[in-house]
């Protein structure tokens, strides 16, 4: 049965590739805005299956990858202070800061722990009131609601030893920042299905209209992506610039009202620096005044907004995250930079474009 399913998938993929070729009359450049989509494209060879006239470029679709160095340095600084337990998702542990990463801080004696949910960090704070438990909150709108829930839970429990380093970022402002760059080459977007599952896709309509680019909300399976490409090219060929929802089995226009309400209760938008994209207005989340006591950056003596931390001179991750260059075009790719010795976040994260190219030898 599995073999038959795989055969049918291959057959359907070939049919979609043929359908895309049949409607393509000129070159088009599309950007996927999700690291999960990037990995699926590279792993399954979708970029080689579709017509050569269509170029797929990889955007800033990995929240770990776009987390700026100064926030990683702040998390490391907090982790090394007395009586602190710093909790993080696993991908963040090996992302380089300006001098080292959280895993090296752990090896040097800091209490750094990998967790699967911020609620795990709340539980740790409940279990030991003598330690300050800090959660490094990284992610797009997909994971921000569970962080908001953790804050709400900590407030309800009256915990004074729980806080977060907030690195949550929002996708639509980043898309606008890319489109505002006069050097951009994008003519259409494949929007991130999981983000839209939470937030819906109503806010993308203004972007599509203002910049005259089609935006297709797309899932992560190979067939999803091929169908998303087909819908996007179909719009481009007919001169349309609308929002379409390929991922209708999971995404509704209004999103998840309960998750959105939780976000609006705990957070408010703020300017945020993105690795490779600099500071983007209203592209990050910060705690509202009512919950500011859970802000680790105020609780501990660390730099409040930015620092002169710089990327490695050998790393072009900023250009890769903007879709200007592809991973294999970096002189350090696979040599000075590899999964065992990463120079930049895209080689570390499970959603990073460099990791996808390295893992699947897509060059």
Quick one: CATH class of the largest domain? Answer: Alpha Beta
Estimated helix fraction: 40-55%
Instruction: State the order of secondary-structure elements, H for helix, E for strand.
Output: HEHHEHHEHEHEHEHEHHEHEHEEHHH
Over all CA atoms, what is the radius of gyration? 21 Å
**Full CATH superfamily name of the largest domain:** HypD, alpha/beta domain 2
How much β-strand is present in the residues? Answer: 15-25%
Helices and strands: which structural class? alpha/beta
Q: Main β-sheet: number of strands, strand sense, barrel status?
A: 5 strands, parallel
Shape: globular
What count of helical segments does DSSP give?
A: 16
Q: What is the total domain count? A: 2
Largest sheet, spatial ordering of strands? 2-1-7-8-9
The CATH topology annotation of the largest domain reads as Rossmann fold
* Low-pLDDT residue intervals, each spanning 5 or more residues: 304-308
**What is the distance, rounded to the nearest whole angstrom, between the alpha carbons of the first and last residues?**
33 Å
- The residue-averaged pLDDT reads 90
The total strand number stands at: 11
CATH hierarchy: architecture of the largest domain: 3-Layer(aba) Sandwich
Please, could you describe this protein's structure?
By secondary structure, the protein is an alpha/beta fold. The protein has two domains: 1-314, Rossmann fold, CATH 3.40.50.11740; 317-360, no CATH class. It is built from 16 helices and eleven strands. Strands 2-1-7-8-9 form a five-stranded parallel β-sheet. A four-stranded parallel β-sheet has the order 4-3-5-6, sandwiched between helices. Strands 10-11 form a two-stranded antiparallel sheet. Helix 1 packs parallel to helix 12 and helix 2 packs parallel to helix 16. The longest helix is centred in the first third of the chain and has 22 residues, at 2-23. The protein is globular.
